[in-house]
Amino acid sequence: MTATAMSVPGAPARTRFFADSAVLTGRSLRHILRSPDTIITTAIMPVAFMLLFVFVLGGAIDAGSDSYVRYQLPGILLITVASGISYTAYRLFLDMQSGIFERFQSMPIARSSVLWAHVLTSLVANLVSLVIVVGVALLIGFRSGAGVLAWLAVAGIMVLFTLALTWLAVIPGLTAKSVEGASAFSYPLIFLPLVSSAFVPTDSMPGPVRWFAEVQPVTPIVNTLRALLEERPVGGDIWIALAWVLGILVASILGTTAAYRRRIA
Amino acid sequence: MNAAPAVPAIRVADIRKSFQDLEVLRGVDLEVARGSVFALLGSNGAGKTTLIRILSTLLRADGGTAEIDGHDVATDSAEVRAAISLTGQFAAVDGQLSGRENLVLIARLRHQRDPGAIADALLARFDLTEAAGRKVATYSGGMRRRLDIAMSLIGSPSVVFLDEPTTGLDPQSRLEVWATVRGLADGGTTVLLTTQTLDEAEHLADRIAILHEGRILVEGALDELQRVLPVAEPVHVAQQPSLEDVFLALVGDQRSSKETAA
Lengths: 265, 262
Ligand SMILES: Nc1ncnc2c1ncn2[C@@H]1O[C@H](COP(=O)(O)OP(=O)(O)OP(=O)(O)O)[C@@H](O)[C@H]1O
Ligand SMILES: [Mg+2]
Fold this sequence. Notes:
The structure holds two protein chains of two kinds.
Chain A: H1 13-34, H2 37-57, H3 68-98, H4 100-105, H5 112-139, H6 148-175, H7 179-184, H8 186-191, H9 207-215, H10 218-229, H11 237-264
Helix pairs in contact in A: 1-5, 2-3, 2-5, 3-5, 3-6, 3-10, 5-6, 6-10, 6-11, 10-11
Chain B: E1 10-19, E2 22-32, E3 37-41, H1 48-55, E4 63-68, E5 71-72, H2 77-83, E6 84-87, H3 99-109, H4 115-125, H5 141-153, E7 159-163, H6 171-186, E8 190-194, H7 198-204, E9 207-212, E10 215-220, H8 222-228, H9 243-251, H10 254-261
Parallel strand pairs in B: 3-8, 3-9, 6-7, 7-8
Antiparallel strand pairs in B: 1-2, 1-4, 4-5, 9-10
Bound molecules: adenosine-5'-triphosphate and magnesium ion.
């Protein structure tokens, strides 16, 4: 028999959680490095939207802003994340299908680290896509005088937003019966920014549409990001935005726990 | 180990499991002695995989208890997972990674000291050294299965579950897996395997159980099972009944048993 060394005895659960999550995150990051097209496809759609809005529709939109590229960028960033997280659901679904998820679950590792690895990978992949999209925005004339703090706030909100939507994506990843089912849930998420303050001011919309645009979560998030980029005070929007994002995050983690319990019941 | 030698490696008592209206396990009892090879037989859909999933903490039973090395699968699942290793019915490998990367991954998750060396030794042992650097997605079915089994041996688990380990393997690979299973048992590892090929159970298992309609129908060593069928039919002049004869006599042809039940 092969001399398999003894396992490190009694590593505390917490260190094990971090060590296992790191190993598993390394694994799924490697998947992405081997198919970088997933990051590029993630970035292509929002970039196309951005070019469409800025060069085709932008001239006809009266947004009351001195720079339409800057005006619409927050919405494009949210669309980037909404399309990026469908890959998380897809990768998790493949793990469920191939049985490797169950293999991990039958091993002496922190069980939640398997999901955390997918979440952290999603965070990294989405941040890379976001950097690409901002890079293209800079090329087509996006400029902002926002300071370091404002940019940190933008980054913080995007990280929270990505985490919240990623945990939401974990639910179809765990429960879907087909690849299409695993990724289809993100379509409405991509659509939401179109019916918000992201591309046109909400007061240009007819009654019921305007009502929807103003109560849905994208509008306060977009308004907050836009205020930060335009060097204006964020006002009360930031609290509504944070409440939405944290609410989605908590609800998604609860939903994930329930979906997971149902699987092993 | 810390458990007293009298404690069986696997003890299953009155395990029940239903999926909606489908009663799959209706009170399964069995014990597997440490260091032995135990074969679980049963028709398609008998519940073999379901039982293995319960024993490897992937599924909760509706009733009854199951213990591995004295640890309850429901309440001490972390201890159970530390003791076991599962090779499921379908190869659970990462197709995007190479064979070597798959092994290193598992070795690191099992906190082994030298994952690279462990991977190389297993690649050599399972005849995968040449394909070690290739993406597993390009492997043949048999190669995946061998990698799958190799992954399950990392970390020297004391109880190994093999759900149809040789399905889809060529005769030579099958013999290699048989040798591996024997080697594991000789080294003190307990092996619970399921199989569809009865000669596999005949050759490999110390004890054999037949799972039928949710219960263990018979359990014993091969010669004990052969005694269940008193006399071989006249056609098989002076021949011991094969395990296949025993199996078919007990379980019956599915179609004819349904007719008699009606
Ligand atoms: N998650 C599930 N939901 C509903 N039914 C299930 C589930 N898992 C298994 N079953 C059903 O339980 C029964 C037993 O399945 P199981 O996979 O345990 O059989 P098996 O003995 O391993 O069969 P095979 O020899 O074909 O692998 C089957 O009828 C199967 O359809
Ligand atoms: Mg099965």
